[in-house]
Automatic annotation (TrEMBL), chains A, B:
GO biological process: oxidative photosynthetic carbon pathway
Domain D-isomer specific 2-hydroxyacid dehydrogenase NAD-binding stretches: 124-297
Source organism: Rhodamnia argentea
Family under the similarity heading: Belongs to the D-isomer specific 2-hydroxyacid dehydrogenase family. GyaR subfamily.
Record-annotated D-isomer specific 2-hydroxyacid dehydrogenase catalytic domain positions: 56-328
Alphabetized UniProt keyword annotations: Glycolate pathway, NAD, NADP, Oxidoreductase, Photorespiration
Protein name: Glyoxylate/hydroxypyruvate reductase HPR3-like
Length: 331, 331
């Protein structure tokens, strides 16, 4: 740990850093320290609370790294009376008290822009994989079954399938663009109908599901979207329906999904996220119509580099009174 | 087997059927018999050769089903002096003596049009899978490794990658169109430069490989393309390069590919086809940077229905003196 800040810290703008203790920071920290005076409670022997209340009263910018593990709630924010900006390293913001930020006029910048292409690529990959049985086929070959059984079950064609996208944000809209090139038709649900979007809008997910062969979940997790895909939506999607989740595990009533997959009451699923990850329901491990993924949808070396650029870009823009590169619009 | 042809056979146009003996034909045969008088050597007690030479002298149309297993060579074609059309149920034509057909003016219709979308979808699926480690991640989760090891290796971003397509036919051009939507840049090799194609052309595969991160093989297998991806091309593609093969196994020098994969001299591979299918080299079964598939790229229930439509459409067009629906252009 670097407890001796470089001498020029006094003239650099202060940035408070919140991060999980297990996180190794080295390359990013070095890049940040070239521009900012980092205040990191984990570098201090003081308890975090007193570090915040004693040393961070004048701090205007907060950086949260790997933020789903570090809640940014009213209790924390009340200790930071000068705060004007929160920069998070994730696309999701379920750990940030957004209504509180709106009330206090604290701007929030997230990292969707760095992650959305990888997320969309991965959503499409899992969708084709479930439909065409790619990883199932890989298991079949690796197990030596091909020369013995010869016949491997056919999957389904992508072209002409109706894909319902839940959450047409940056990942959702890029997923839609890709799927159009496969001949899929697109419809979507989001909090509000979006202007200038060519796809049909459904005001609720149940109706979207009733008119879709495949649902792709890429909305934020909020109290309003927790278990947004439950019994009703799964019934509407029907026996042959497929669910792809690159959002958050708790968007889906996982118990209900597992029950339906086991009973053949839903066609298949591609899941990058789970309600209690890294715990994955045991029943899923034996099913051939699911593709399971260790929360890697948005993660590539390229996206991790891009998120660092974006974090530094947002902080520099803020301290130069320039527009933020990825301001989250409060609704 | 239906050895009693329906009474109206006398007035229906004759179509000679060549098929592997193991093939169960029922739904297609019933549909064909509504329009054509099928002559099937496997329905006869005569040896195939005498069936052809005695009963098929006036046959103008030949239908080959699951044709890679039924060679249509000069020996067979010499027995059919009236032949004007060969319809095959596959995209590949390596089992048909095309130079002989050209000399005799026999038209050939293939089934690419029914298969190309599924083939392109699958090529893209395997490409993303290798790059983003989708089926590797699925194995990791199924093995219960996620809660234990936590860290799963990152894959690579698709956007910005240079994809070289070997064979810009119907599957290749549809693969290119899809990959553009992921932000990949496309270049291609084929026998000749294609007019009206926006992608850079390389006259040889070695140069294409030297300028690509990923090679996608979807050309026909001919004497000219056997082992078109050998040592030189793999060296040019380089250590991080990826090979996707949805064409035929023998397009690649498989021994060389396996050797390089094992030694880490090539980045990864997605293989739907193999030199001695269904035999897959044992060394591949343990590698995490390969995706293995039991020759299913073009196969969905939808494509199998489409190929039946296309076969019947071609035969009906021929006997009505209308343009064939999928005439193969001799070069």
């Amino acid at each position: 740990m670097d407890t001796n800040p470089p001498q020029n810290d006094a003239v650099l703008p202060k940035v408070l850093l919140l991060r999980p203790s297990a996180l190794t920071l080295l390359p990013l920290a070095a890049r940040l320290r070239a521009h900012f005076h980092l205040l990191d409670p984990l570098d201090s022997s003081e308890p975090a609370q007193s570090f915040l209340s004693l040393r961070c009263r004048s701090v205007r910018a907060l950086l949260c790294l790997f933020t789903p593990f570090v809640p940014v709630n009213a209790g924390t924010l009340d200790l930071l009376p000068s705060l004007e900006l929160i920069v998070v390293s994730s696309a999701g913001l379920e750990h940030v008290d957004l209504p509180y930020c709106r009330r206090r006029g604290i701007a929030v910048a997230n990292a969707s822009a760095a992650f959305c292409e990888d997320g969309a690529d991965y959503a499409v990959a899992m969708l084709i994989d479930v439909m065409r049985r790619v990883s199932h086929g890989d298991r079949f070959v690796r197990a030596g079954s091909w020369p013995v059984q010869r016949e491997f079950p056919l999957g389904f064609k992508l072209g002409g399938k109706r894909v319902g996208i839940v959450g047409l944000g940056s990942i959702g809209s890029k997923t839609a663009k890709r799927l159009v090139s496969f001949g899929c038709s697109i419809a979507y649900n989001s909090r509000k109908e979006k202007p200038h979007v060519p796809y049909p809008y459904y005001a609720n997910v149940r109706d979207l599901a009733a008119n879709s062969d495949i649902l792709v979940l890429c909305c934020a997790l909020t109290e309003g979207t927790r278990h947004i895909v439950g019994k009703d939506v799964m019934s509407a999607l029907g026996k042959g329906g497929v669910i792809i989740n690159v959002g958050r595990g708790a968007l889906v009533d996982e118990k209900e999904l597992v029950r339906r997959l086991v009973r053949g009451e839903i066609g298949g699923a591609g899941l990058d996220v789970f309600e209690k990850e890294p715990k994955v329901p045991d029943e899923l491990l034996a099913l051939d119509n699911v593709v399971l993924s260790p929360h890697r949808a948005v993660m590539t070396p390229e996206s991790l580099e891009a998120v660092q650029e974006l974090i530094i870009g947002n902080l520099r823009a803020f301290f130069s009174n320039e527009p933020l590169r990825s301001l989250v619009q409060h609704e």
